Structures are given as structure tokens and as C-alpha cells.
Amino acid sequence: xxxNYLTLLAAITLTACASNTPKAMTYDNKPNAGQSIxxxxxxxxxxxxxxxxxRPETGWGERLPEELNELARVHNRAINGRSTxxxxxxxxxxxxxxxxxxxxxxxIQFGHNDQKHEDPLRYTNPHTGYRANLTQFVADVRxxxxxxxxxxxxxxxxxxxxxxLIDSHGVYAEVVRRxxxxxxxxxxxxxxxxxxxxxxxxxxxxxSLYLHLAPGEHPNYPDGxxxxxxxxxxxxxxxxxxxxxxxxxxxxxxxxxxxxxx
Length: 262
Prior knowledge:
Elements: H1 5-18, E1 37-43, E2 72-76, H2 84-89, H3 92-99, E3 105-109, H4 126-143, E4 147-151, H5 171-183, E5 187-188, H6 190-201, H7 203-206, E6 210-213, E7 225-231, H8 233-248
Parallel strand pairs: 1-2, 1-3, 3-4, 4-5
Antiparallel strand pairs: 6-7
């Protein structure tokens, strides 16, 4: 995280502009032959695969397969609008658990929608339901001999009138930090890391990572869009880069499958 993000942004732009829409391989990134591990992604819209009519919105999880060798397969099961509660209640979590094999990995990143106190189908109290769900997810993965990785939510691009980036996740980010520490789970503090990236880039340039389009700029958004939560193609690549950089710092068998770590 000591990298200069302006330099990183410039480097990533070259590849992101070369292919403005993620390739079809973003769901299952490699052939089945010789497959050694599966990597499941459980989360919300900031991680999830997007439909064509939502482009150029892109989940950062769509870019993860590009970082892996032919022995790993990514299953991006993140779903727009889900919280730990709705993801579990709708059966999506149990589906992942049923498919797990020993040595697999599960990336778990929720929080944006757990905060929605006006929606009883999604809201979780951070100190009770949210914490309990994360704890259950960790236990379920470990019971199958697989490895959970917890991630806090990426930052919203939320600035005040003075141009100061405002915390938008509050206690939820702190709770996932505590769960990871208490249960000794590999953890990537994406709230902190993405806030650092946005602060280094500044308010004006950080807009280039999110879904901002002028009217008429893209056929999917004829009236334009200003969205400071969801990433565009470039933003997804930047966030995926941060995730991979942090993974390479950890002592994980997963790293033998990440080409950048070797």
C-alpha cells in the first residue's frame, strides 16, 4: 500500500482501456483439466458479475481470475444488493458450502447492505446479527476444510463540502476487523486500503474509478449516472490489484496460484 496510486492508475489504464468489458472467463477463469482449488466469492454488488445492461459497472471480483494460474477456478457468487442476512436467508451461502472441498478458499465481503436499517430483509445489527453471520460463515468454511478470507467493504466515494473523504461504513468495518482477529482469519482491510487510495488520488481523480457518466456518454445510461458506490472497469481493476497485493503479503497456499506472487 505504499505504492503511488497515481502511478498504479496510469499502468492499469493501459490494460483496462484495451478491454473495456471483462472477458467471458471472469466467471470460471480456466479449464477444468488439472484443477487444484476453487475460490468462491461471497459478497455484494461491489464484487459481483454485472449484466450487459449495467456496463461499464464492474465488480472487482470479475478481475480476480486474470491474476490466477490454470490450476485455480473462481466462482463469483456475489450478488447485487445482498447483505449477510439476505445472502444466507435466500440459500446462496449454503450453496457455496455444499460445493466446498478441502483446500478451497472463500472470500467473504459484506457490509454495504447490512447497514440498510430501513429494510428488514437485509439489515443486521453490527454487534449481533452481522457479527453472528460472519462468525457462522467462518465456521462453515472451516468445517469443510477450506479457508475463509474476510474483507471489509470498499469505501464509498463520499466527500464533504471541504473535500474530506467521509467514513461510510462506521462500526461495520470495525466489527469485521474484530471477527477476523478473534477467530484468526486472514483479513484484508479494504475499507482502510481503498480510503487510502482515494485520499492519495484526490477527490477529482478518484471519480475515474466509479460509475460516473454524462448524459449520452453510454447507451446503458442515456440520462447519465453519478454513482459513488459502484466501480467502473478501471475501478474494479484498481481494487482487484489492491486485493492481490495484500494476498501476496500473507502466508497462504493460495499464493502459489497467484501469478503476481511468484
